[in-house]
Give the backbone structure.
Amino acid sequence: MSGNRFIWGSRMFGKRTLRRAIASAAVLVVAAFAAPAAEAAVVHSAPVPTYQTNGRVNVIVIQGGVIYLGGQFTAVRPAGSSSGSVTRNHAAALSLATGQVLPWNPDVNGTVQSLAVGNGRVYLGGSFSNVGGTSRTRLAAVDPSIGAVVPGFNPRPSGSVNSLALAGNTLYAGGNFSTVSGIPRANLAAVDATSGALITTWTPSADDVVKAVDMAADGSRVYVAGNFTTVNGTSRRHVAALDTASGAPISSFSHGPSYAVVDMAVDANGVFLAGAGGGGNFAELNLTTGATVWQGGTNGNAQAIATLDGVVYVGGHFDNYCGMRSGQHTCTTPITRHKLLAVDETTGSLLSWNPSANSTLGVFALTGSGTVLAAGGDFTRIGGRSQQGFAEFTE
């Protein structure tokens, strides 16, 4: 029935078209009477109907009209429903167009912490030991349509893989490991994206856990972030830019934050960090030097960060924004933001977007792509709607 287009739980394009038409009309009416200061175009505060999970989502990648999810869940179910569950152990795929669950089903026996998509494959990283009934220790490649394990690709890192970045035929990995394919590698490694063979010429060594790996927008360097304070014995506080061929720290990028970094996003304008410290912290760094461009603080850890159309979205387990300053466990001038907030990418100024998510630990993953912001975490309610683990917001 055509009326179902506008009911939560039955997502169709008619709902988005109507919402955009109403929003456009409202903008024209307001513009006729006033001309307030311009604010960056944020996504809507209410999520669109899409399948949800029964547990935490740690990572989200949107590629080729598909939303790939990884985490600690074991099933997905329709929006607004407590029934209709479909088994998906730690990895699932949804249609970007409809929000429906897709056949892709790698069937992973442990937590998926990282994903990368390309070369006709989906790469999974985490703390698992088996994918689809095949032994695969912490790093695997699977088919992008059904999730079947790719034969031969088996790098076998000795510890968890927290982040993956794909550039051409090179897959960069960061985590908490000491060997890959039996060869010493301290928390950072690169493997051939086709064969899984360790790339022996890329040899950075981080002295502590790596939480995030990302490529420069132009592919000229690899950015890494986490708990470490040195790379290759050189001081690099929690973030570094590395040469794509050798892994050596790039000398010009020499600044870094005092707090451990939990997540990172990189675009053509800057490097964006989310992390811990007194309360939580998030910041933009200069792409070349690593110097802080602007800084924001919360009263709990910032755990996820993404950029989309001039807006920086931050997720975590905070309940208050503390201002353009370092985080505080008790904000002196709190502004309520439960687990999610948005700031202007250029200035770092707080924006009005305030969807609010529940749960103690909150949001663990944010990804922006096209006109979509996707969020994952521990929540069971977000943007005023019952929705567990995963939510999709549109412009």
Remarks:
- The two ends are 26 Å apart (CA to CA).
